[in-house]
Protein: Beta-amyrin 28-oxidase-like
Amino acid sequence: MELFLLSFAITLAIIINFLFKYFFAKPKEKIPLAPGTFGWPIIGETIQFLISLYYGLVHEFVQKRTNKYNSNVFKTSLLGQNVAVFSGPAANKFIFTNGNKLLIGYRPPSVQKLFPSTSFVPIEHDTKRAQNVISYFLNSKNVDKLISTMDNMSHFHLENHWKGKNEVIVYDLVKLFTFSLSIRAFTGIEDSDKILNFYEKFKIFTQGLLAMDINFPGTTFYKAMKAGIELRKEMKAIIEQRREELLENPNFPKVDVLTQLLDEQDGDGKYMTEVEISDKVFGFIIGSYDTTATTITLTMKYLQEKPQFFNEIIEEQNEISRQMKPRKVLCWDDIQKMRKTWSFVNEVLRNKPVVQGIFREAIEDITYEDFVIPKGWKIYLSFGATQKNDEYFPNPNKFDPSIFEGKGELVPYTSVPFGGGHRMCPGKEFARLLILVFLHNLLKNFRWKAKVPSEKILYPFFLLAIPTDGYPVNLYNV
Ligand code: HEM
Structure:
C-alpha cells in the first residue's frame, strides 16, 4: 500500500511539473542563427571562399559580409558544411579561451586517413602532447644546444647551396634547409641522402593533405597514401634503432623529439604506439618546415622591397656579431637582442598571414553576440580579417613594423599568426629561433635582388602563402 502511495505521489509530481512547464512557464526565447546566407544549394559560397583563399584575400571575403550584416559573425556554407565565420579580437579571444569547452579542432577526411592514429587519439590530446614535447626542447638547459644546431646548420646550408651562386630560387632552397633542420631536430637524422629521400616523400605526402580523399591509382591522394606507408616503414626502423639505443643506455640524451616521444607516458602510464609516434613526428615536420620556409622567403622579399627597414636590421645584426666576439656560435641572449628583426617578421606575418585562419567544430550549441551556432557546425576564424581591419591597424596596407616594437598601441588579440589559447601553435618559439638564426647568417653573408619584381604571392594549395615563382633572386656576397 505504502509503495502504491509513493509511486502515485511521484507520478503526480511529474505530471504537475510537466503541466507547469508547458502551460504556465514563460516560453524560452528562441535565439536566432547568425546573419548570412548559405548561398547556392550544396556548393554554398565555396567557390567565392576558395578563390579568395587562393589569392590571399579571405579578409575581403569576410569584411564584405561583416559590413553587410553589421556583425562579427556570419553564417555561410562551405564544402557542404554549415559554417559560422568569426573575426575581430573579441572573436579571437572567444575561440581561443573557449577552446576545449565548446569547440574541437576539425580534421578533414584526407588528414584522418593519412594519419591513422587520428582514429584513436582525440585531437585535443594531440595538442597537449605536442606542447609538452616542444617545451622540453626549449627549456633553459637545452635551448642553447638547439640554437647552436640551428646556427651550424644555417652556416653549412648557406656555404653549400648559396655561396658562389649568382642566382637562386629562395623558396626551394629555404624549404630544403627548414626540412633538414626539422627532421634533424625531430628524429635525429643527419645523413644528407636519407634527408633528401625523406624530403621527396614528404612533398608527396603533404600534397595529399589538401586533396580529395579519393584513393584510386593516379590521384594525388593515392600517391600521398603510398608515400605515407613508405615513410612509416622507414620511421619504424628508426624507432626500433632508437629503442635499442635507449635500452643499452638509459641515460641516452633526449636530444630530439623522437627520444622524447618514446619516453612519454599518458595518465595511465601507457607508452605511445609506433603508429602514434610516427604520426606525431610527421605532424611536427609538416607543421614546421613549410610555415617557416614561407615566412623566411616572404621576409626576404619584404626586406628587399623596404630598404629603410633593411638598413636598420642590418645594423642590428652587425651589432650582435660585434658583441659576440670572440664567441662564434649564437646563443639565447643574442636572439633576445634581435628585436627589430623579429618585429619586422611579425609585420610580414600581419600583412601576409602564412595561415589565413583556422577551422573548429562546435561540440555544443554556442551563443555568441546574441546568435546561436548549433552543435556540429564548423567554425572558421579569419586571422586576416582582423589583421587587415583599419579599426585596429589605421593604415592596414602600409608596411610598418614599429607597432610590434612597442610604438603605438597593439590591441590584444588583433595579430595572431600562431593562433592562441590552449591550441596555440606549439612550435611558435621554435619557429622564432629558427627564422632569426637563419636570417642572422643570411644577412651576415649575402645581399639579393628580386629577378621578378612584380612577382605575386598566392596560396596555391589554399593553405600557405608562396611567391608564384618561388622568389628567384640575384645573389651578391657581402
Ligand atoms: C612561422 C611559422 C609558423 C606559423 C605561422 C604557425 C602557425 C600555426 C597555426 C596558426 C596553428 C593552428 C593553431 C590552432 O589551431 O589554433 C599551428 C598549429 C601547429 N603548429 Fe605551427 N606554425 C608555425 C611553425 C611551426 C613549427 C616550427 C612547428 C614545429 C616545431 C609547428 C607545429 C605545429 C603543430 C604540431 C600544430 C598543430 C597543433 C595541434 O592542433 O595539435 N608550427 N601552427
